[in-house]
């Protein structure tokens, strides 16, 4: 069977199988790990085909996998696998502490495969309306990964998540319908297929394309966490279990962004780059400064990382706004760098919450003496998030500066530098607060986690450092091909 | 010509029902108004099928009837009955102001939108295109101006009806999986929102979403 068809079936089937497994934690834990490996292997096999120069199509081009999609599919495979492995540890702790029931754990594991399936579906859809449906489905599949418990905060986060994302995405559906209507009859072939729309973008009405891009930005931007419609994100990321926050921030936001990037490509080729770049710069600047402002005030470690997600979506938008081959390359690289970094950041908050029994950083302190490995992992996440050289995020942020400098966009460089400086200061003050000095609150778990429990986090840290110092030929190939396809070079 | 007039009349009625879904205080009446609106939507699909020979819309009308005239209203009736609810909580700005604000802003936005849509629509029916934008915006304002969780679910249903009508007018000939995907999402969204509404009621003791203020900052 075709690999593209397999990745559209297997995660869904495994999710359903998981729903029918017996209520025995060891069985569920082992199955979750085995199934995660199986899904990720399949996804990476599909990515490998694209790296070898193939573009995959299925069901009369309804589904496809190009280099751009392959980048995001590899994030689902790699980040998804490591977070899912960590989720088994995290859920074991939650179960031991009586925060969740075994049935809730089983549902969580099963839903995480349905969630992976919807995300993979959104990445491989060539039909833009079905891509929208898949992105909306990611929200539906992940609501109960966020609202795991039945308490007030959990319910509130689930409510805000589904309501705000559904409203936002409705605008994206209007963009989709309008794009189809504008293209239907004016271009050859099915006007719902992204490949046809991109190939014939120059034939589309420019005024319609401008409205379409604004609607798509509101829609996919809401789901991706762009200001001012980002308000659901801090609540949802802060309240969900640590692995859910890692999946949402590390992968889901990128899937919504991929939807926007596809519209960016069509509109840029139909209207011209200046329009999409200007719109993205306005959105990115607003997102960066709103998140920086809220970031300074945060003492809840997960809420702090949630605002970081908003900030880094702003960085990606800034890369797309600066534009040009280097700007777009940087934005796509940042998707991967942020995915690994934020997965590590949120997973380390799982360890931290276990140690202190709280997410409030003012009640922590002295973590370096209690759990040195967790502190180092937390530090690596922070260093990468603020763009310290040698870590993955530095590469993309540096490239954005480079792209702006080449085009002589010095004011944009200044704006970008100012926003990053605020984030830098806010982050390190928070990091020192939690990691050094004396313990301010109570220590619930006095000691480091087991090495096996920290293994997925260590793997993420290795990825962050490796991507910061090493250039992977296959990954660079995917980035180059994606930039070429977006700019139609 | 007779068909054309009938389509216009029914879409105007749909606009009226969206105002009823939004403004009626009793949940049962609101849900009934929604079911009626969706029935009118089904009739519009059938009339468009007759007028333009678009056989796809015949299938759309059948699926919309089953899922949105029967299943969704029944689910919402059951939900309201199970929670023992009769009248919604006070909305933002009160029971009188919020429908007036929603109506005027929705009319204004629809006036702008339909002029763009008419240039690209497969079917050049002005009033239905206007109605689609209006119903969509009434749904959006429902989210903003009504505090009741049930009313917000109905608002979702409203804007989904607006989108469904737009889809029929502007993209009826898209791949059949598109309608299946969008409709499936809508049904699951209502079901999940319903489950969350039950949880909300159990934890907060009401469906007033303005009480959900534990996660600010």
Describe the structure in your own words.
The complex is a heterodimer of chains A (489) and B (217). Helices cover 78% and strands 1% of the residues of chain A. Chain A has 19 helices and 2 strands. In chain A, α1 (3-19) packs antiparallel against α2, α13 (324-356) runs antiparallel to α16 and α13 (324-356) runs antiparallel to α18 (451-469). The mean pLDDT of chain A is 91. By secondary structure, chain B is mainly alpha-helical. In chain B, 81% of the residues lie in helices and 0% in strands. The longest helix of chain B has 29 residues, at 176-204. Chain B starts with a helix and ends in a 13-residue tail after the last helix. At the A-B interface, α5, α6, α8 and α9 of A face α4, α5, α6 and α7 of B.
Give the total of beta strands of chain B: 0
Task: Please indicate the count of domains of chain B.
Answer: 1
Biggest β-sheet of chain B: count, sense, barrel? Answer: none
Molecular shape of chain B: globular
Summarize this structure as a short list of keywords or feature phrases.
heterodimer; A: 489 residues; mainly alpha; two-stranded antiparallel sheet; 2 strands; globular; B: 217 residues; 7 helices; 81% helix
Topology:
The complex is a heterodimer of chains A (489) and B (217).
Chain A: H1 3-19, H2 25-51, E1 56-58, E2 63-65, H3 67-96, H4 102-124, H5 128-146, H6 152-183, H7 194-199, H8 206-224, H9 232-239, H10 242-271, H11 273-296, H12 301-322, H13 324-356, H14 367-370, H15 372-385, H16 392-406, H17 410-435, H18 451-469, H19 473-487
Antiparallel strand pairs in A: 1-2
Helix pairs in contact in A: 1-2, 1-4, 2-3, 2-4, 3-4, 3-10, 3-13, 3-18, 3-19, 4-5, 5-6, 5-10, 6-8, 6-9, 8-10, 9-10, 9-12, 10-11, 10-12, 10-13, 11-12, 11-17, 12-13, 12-16, 12-17, 13-15, 13-16, 13-18, 13-19, 15-17, 15-18, 16-17, 16-18
Chain B: H1 2-23, H2 27-52, H3 56-83, H4 94-120, H5 126-145, H6 149-171, H7 176-204
Helix pairs in contact in B: 1-2, 1-5, 2-3, 2-6, 3-7, 4-5, 5-6, 6-7
């Amino acid at each position: 069977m075709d690999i593209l068809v397999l990745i559209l079936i297997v995660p869904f089937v495994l999710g359903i199988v998981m729903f029918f497994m017996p209520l025995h934690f060891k069985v569920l834990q082992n199955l979750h790990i085995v199934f995660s490996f199986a899904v990720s292997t399949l996804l990476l096999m599909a990515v490998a085909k694209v790296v070898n120069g193939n573009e995959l199509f299925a069901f009369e081009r309804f589904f496809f996998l190009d280099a751009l999609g392959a980048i995001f599919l590899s994030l689902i495979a790699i980040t998804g696998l490591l977070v899912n492995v960590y989720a088994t540890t995290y859920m074991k702790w939650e179960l031991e502490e009586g925060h969740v029931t075994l049935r809730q754990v089983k549902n969580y594991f099963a839903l995480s495969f349905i969630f992976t399936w919807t995300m993979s579906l959104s990445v491989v859809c060539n039909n833009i309306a079905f891509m929208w449906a898949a992105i909306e489905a990611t929200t539906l599949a992940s609501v109960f990964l966020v609202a795991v418990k039945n308490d007030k905060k959990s319910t509130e986060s689930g409510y805000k998540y589904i309501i705000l994302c559904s409203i936002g995405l409705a605008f994206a559906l209007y963009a989709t319908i309008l794009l189809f209507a504008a293209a239907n009859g004016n271009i050859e072939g099915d006007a719902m297929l992204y490949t046809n729309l991109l190939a014939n973008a120059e034939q589309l009405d420019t005024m319609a394309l401008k409205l379409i891009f604004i609607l798509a930005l509101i829609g996919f931007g809401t789901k991706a966490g762009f200001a001012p419609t980002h308000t659901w994100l801090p609540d949802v990321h802060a309240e969900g279990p640590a692995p859910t926050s890692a999946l949402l921030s590390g992968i889901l936001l990128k899937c919504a962004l991929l939807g926007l990037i596809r519209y960016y490509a069509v509109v840029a080729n139909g209207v011209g780059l200046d329009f999409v770049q200007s719109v993205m710069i306005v959105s990115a600047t607003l997102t960066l400064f709103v998140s920086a402002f809220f970031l300074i005030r945060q003492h809840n470690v997960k809420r702090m990382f949630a605002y970081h997600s908003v900030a880094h979506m702003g960085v990606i938008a800034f890369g797309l706004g600066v534009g040009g081959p280097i700007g777009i390359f940087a934005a796509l690289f940042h998707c991967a760098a942020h995915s690994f970094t934020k997965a590590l950041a949120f997973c380390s908050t799982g360890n931290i919450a276990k140690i202190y029994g709280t997410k409030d950083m003012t009640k922590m302190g002295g973590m370096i003496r209690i759990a040195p490995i967790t502190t180092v992992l937390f530090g690596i996440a922070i260093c990468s998030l603020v763009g310290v050289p040698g870590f993955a995020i530095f590469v993309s942020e540096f490239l954005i500066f480079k792209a702006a400098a080449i085009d002589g966009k010095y004011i944009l460089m200044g704006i970008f530098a100012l926003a990053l400086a605020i984030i830098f200061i806010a982050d390190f003050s928070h990091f020192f607060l939690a990691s050094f000095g004396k313990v301010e609150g109570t220590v619930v778990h006095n000691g480091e986690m087991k090495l096996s429990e920290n293994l997925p986090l260590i793997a993420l840290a290795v990825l962050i450092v490796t991507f910061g110092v090493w250039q992977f030929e296959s990954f660079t190939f995917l980035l180059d091909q994606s930039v070429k396809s977006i700019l139609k070079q | 010509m007779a068909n054309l007039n009938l389509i216009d009349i029914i879409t105007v009625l749909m606009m009226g029902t969206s105002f009823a879904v939004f403004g009626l205080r009793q949940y049962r009446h609101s849900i009934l108004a929604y079911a009626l609106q969706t029935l009118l939507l089904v009739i519009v699909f059938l009339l468009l099928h007759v007028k333009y020979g678009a056989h796809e819309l015949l299938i759309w009308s059948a699926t919309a009837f089953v899922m949105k005239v029967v299943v969704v209203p029944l689910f919402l009736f059951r939900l309201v009955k199970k929670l023992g609810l009769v009248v919604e909580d006070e909305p933002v700005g009160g029971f009188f102001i919020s429908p007036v604000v929603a109506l005027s802003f929705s009319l204004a936005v629809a006036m702008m939108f339909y002029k763009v849509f008419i240039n690209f629509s497969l079917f050049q029916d002005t009033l239905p295109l206007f109605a689609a934008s209006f119903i969509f915006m009434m749904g959006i304002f429902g989210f903003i101006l009504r505090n009741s969780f049930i009313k917000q679910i109905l608002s979702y249903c409203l804007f989904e009806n607006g989108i469904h009508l737009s889809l029929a007018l502007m993209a009826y000939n898209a791949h059949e999986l598109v309608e299946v995907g969008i409709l499936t999402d809508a049904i699951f969204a209502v079901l999940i929102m319903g489950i969350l509404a039950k949880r909300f009621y159990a934890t907060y003791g009401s469906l007033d979403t303005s009480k959900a203020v534990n996660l600010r900052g």
